[in-house]
């Protein structure tokens, strides 16, 4: 029987929701790994809505669960209904929606607050010693909820201009966590906490390299499950 994995989304679209390529990559690798996947998102209003063509704010309101349903092809549940006991692992793709909707990192940085359903989900899987996979900006959720854990968001310096958000690594360190430098096609496994992270679009890299990196994260999560 395949591993049962919960995938948690934050909307639909890189600037105000889940990064679509990352969510799709995670789903493809989970499918290839024989996993049984169910998709969840919090039933809350988005912090903001961005016109992805213009890159500017839009004067409208959208719901995170409703928007995430686009990525889930309609097959999605309220995150409040997720029961860790029914799954072997949980995975969070990235995108600004993680830093805006699942927590307030986009506004408050290391002083952010984490959505209560997101926090309780992470804590439930961690307490049950079940693996947690996070990519792109979503490792900051683990850094905030689990002080002392190890994560990667890529590099801690903007190497060759490929890591424009390298300062995130410093903020993670300030939270008392250990940042591990990794390339885009790699992931890091915090064995003690069963947290697996990869940088994805935190690195300016060809799409196939990002896809491959997410693949290593998914593979490690499934090994730990």
Automatic annotation (TrEMBL):
Protein name: GAL3A protein
Origin species: Scytalopus superciliaris
Superkingdom of origin organism: Eukaryota
InterPro entries: Class_I_gatase-like (IPR029062)
NCBIfam families reported for this sequence: PRK11780.1
Recorded name of the encoding gene: Gatd3a_1
């Amino acid at each position: 029987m395949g591993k049962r994995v919960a995938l948690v989304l934050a909307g639909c679209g890189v600037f105000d929701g889940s990064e679509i390529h990352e969510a799709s990559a995670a789903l493809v690798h989970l499918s290839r790994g024989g996993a049984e996947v169910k998709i969840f998102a919090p039933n809350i209003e988005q912090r903001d809505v961005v016109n992805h063509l213009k890159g500017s704010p839009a004067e409208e309101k959208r719901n995170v669960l409703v928007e995430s349903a686009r990525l889930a092809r309609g097959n999605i549940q309220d995150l409040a209904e997720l029961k860790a006991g029914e799954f072997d692992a949980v995975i969070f793709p990235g995108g600004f929606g993680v830093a805006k909707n699942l927590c307030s990192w986009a506004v408050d940085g290391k002083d952010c607050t984490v959505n209560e359903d997101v926090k309780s989900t992470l804590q439930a899987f961690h307490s049950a010693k079940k693996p947690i996979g996070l990519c792109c900006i979503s490792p900051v959720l683990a850094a905030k909820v689990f002080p002392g854990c190890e994560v990667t968001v890529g590099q801690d310096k903007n190497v060759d201009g490929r890591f424009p958000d390298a300062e995130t690594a410093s903020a993670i360190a300030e939270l008392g966590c250990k940042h591990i430098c990794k390339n885009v096609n790699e992931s890091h496994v915090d064995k003690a906490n069963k947290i697996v992270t990869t940088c994805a679009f935190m690195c300016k890299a060809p799409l196939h390299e990002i896809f491959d990196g997410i693949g290593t994260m998914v593979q490690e999560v499934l090994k730990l499950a």
